[in-house]
Amino acid sequence: MNSSVFSLCSFLLLVPILSLILVPSHVNCFKTDVRLGSCQPFDCGKLKGISYPFRGNHQPDSCGHPEFVLDCQSDDAHLVFDGMSQRFRVLELDQTARTLNLAITDLSDSTCPDKFSNISLESTPFSFTAKDQMAALLYDCDQTKHPGQTRFSCDRSNFSRSGYFMMEADLGYEFPPRLSCGVTVLVPVMEKAVGKLMSKEVDVEEVLDEGFEVSWSSIEEEKCRDCIVSGGKCGRNTTVYEFSCFCPDYKAYAWSCSSSTTGTTQDMVPASDPVYPAPSDAAGDSSVIA
Questions:
Q1: Apex 88 CA angle, 86 and 92, nearest 5
Q2: How much helix, strand and coil, in percent to the nearest 5, is found in the chain?
Q3: In 10 A of CB 183, how many CB atoms?
Q4: What are the pLDDT digits (tens) for 116-156?
Q5: Which of 21, 54, 76, 229 is the most exposed place for a label (fewest CB within 10 A)?
Q6: Residues sharing a CB contact under 8 Å with residue 152, sequence separation 6 or more, in sequence order
Q7: DSSP of 213-233, one letter per residue?
Q8: What's the DSSP call for residue 187?
Q9: How far does Cα 270 stand from its chain's mean position?
Q10: Which pTM does this prediction carry?
């Protein structure tokens, strides 16, 4: 056999072996069809420039954390928690402080909603803050047993209803509510709003409209900052539920677009995870960020 042909064949056989030896294991990336533009910061209702861990419901699932999805189909941003029927109107969002000011959509429409449910954050990544207090809304009560309580009423198209507002901490001291009221609903409210109610500056409806505050712990925001600095866009591997950094080379890395220096690892994401096709000519596509 010609020696030059033999050398070429030998080299070709060594290429796969050399690639396994020379490429560090922590540069674990995959060829992705995600366009960087699909995970851009977005506006939602009156909120501007929202970014990871949030995503809009108009964006691919891989653009944000599954518990941080905002409904942007109206003038207001709304948040819906998995496993809860309640919708929350987002009044304020501070991603630096990691806080949200939320109002219960049903109670914003009427203090006498069609459905009653207590508000709990146990199955969510959010927590109440020191600005909140838990209040009770009491309906279908025997009015003779509630002297001195803050009373409210609401008229619906087919009936008129009244109720009482009081703090949860006072329920056991004032009276046994379940003996005298048909429905007791626990809702979070802002402490400062309750103070205004007690001084008659606002009514119950306005207290509920001011909502309550929640906070969240870090959801890979440190990784996201490194990803952005390296030229990528933050997102999520929807197969193994881990952070991904979508990069200009049409690959996703576990931390940043320069993951070869971070020492982080990530399982490969199947090509079916991204939802947008890669442009045939990346250099000529204005939606791709270099």
A1: 165
A2: 25, 30, 45
A3: 14
A4: 888 888 888 999 999 999 999 988 887 776 656 788 887 66
A5: 21
A6: 111, 162, 163, 164, 165, 203, 204, 205
A7: EEEE--SSHHHHHHHHHTT-E
A8: E
A9: 24
A10: 0.73
